């Protein structure tokens, strides 16, 4: 049984596994799932739903911002080490970096995109081929936000992945400017903190007609900021004695306050709250029993697969289940529906993860595929 469970843990390129990272991913992905499940039930339910759950789950979309900060941290860590060494082989590292992003993320993305395109056109007949094919092409090149900013596509939640890809392309250059300079950690932290505030203010006053990295750049910068904070060996927080309580309070603040309805000060503060939460989890091991639980880590580790397909799975299950009433108590009925939707999402996602994502986590899979192809061709030729 343990062997089967262990086969679901993510494969890391470095071979070093940090369970707290997947614990953070779980918090982010489950908030997004709850948000979309509750929103679906809100619009589809035949009975008037209570405002309690809707208010509780309405900020679940903020899990996307948790992902943005985490991406900034994860991608900046190796570059921080690279640019801090003497005469780094930048060209080789950049080649590995971009190839790894391409071979790791593209296969499951393309598989999910093409599958849903086929289902929507030829399965459910929701869209015509002529209407949806341009959406497929733009999504394959991560341009849907720009080309079809106000038009529904194959999977509306994939807009965040386009933002992520824009940061992936920019990350090496950005990290070069941040970490290549030989300055103290304190001074670099001050610069990064100031940059986060400046971009948050600019975003507040300068808007664009489509979604792009600009609107969310402060979150990715916050991830880089976290990398630099964790590099400081002598850092003591008085709050560390109450780290679990502090983390829970931070989570409640992050998900309770209406982010879109608050003013500029909270808009500036928000990304720093996420950094503080991650600092407590990664450095001070707060919520450790939760974040390192193997089932939590497995679900968190499969967050990419879950994110790719969860919206369509919720729609597929929900459209068939929403007409059923399991209880005369509306609040309880909503909880049951959301539980069913999320259970379905997790089951389907874990199958997708096992078949179409985890194999591509092995960085040597292109070499193995080439070797297998040569052997196969050799058999046919002989």
Characterise this structure:
By secondary structure, this protein is mostly helical. It has one domain (2-381). The chain is 72% helix and 0% strand. The protein has 17 helices and no strands. Helix 2 (19-44) packs across helix 14. The relative contact order is 0.16. The mean pLDDT is 89.
Query: Low-confidence parts, pLDDT < 50 over ≥5 residues?
Result: none
Order of helices and strands: HHHHHHHHHHHHHHHHH
| Largest sheet data | none
- The portion of residues assigned to helices is over 70%
General shape: globular
The overall average pLDDT, rounded, is 89
- Overall SS class: mainly alpha
* Distance between the ends: 42 Å
Q: Total number of helical segments?
A: 17
Oligomer: single chain
How many whole angstroms does the radius of gyration measure? 22 Å
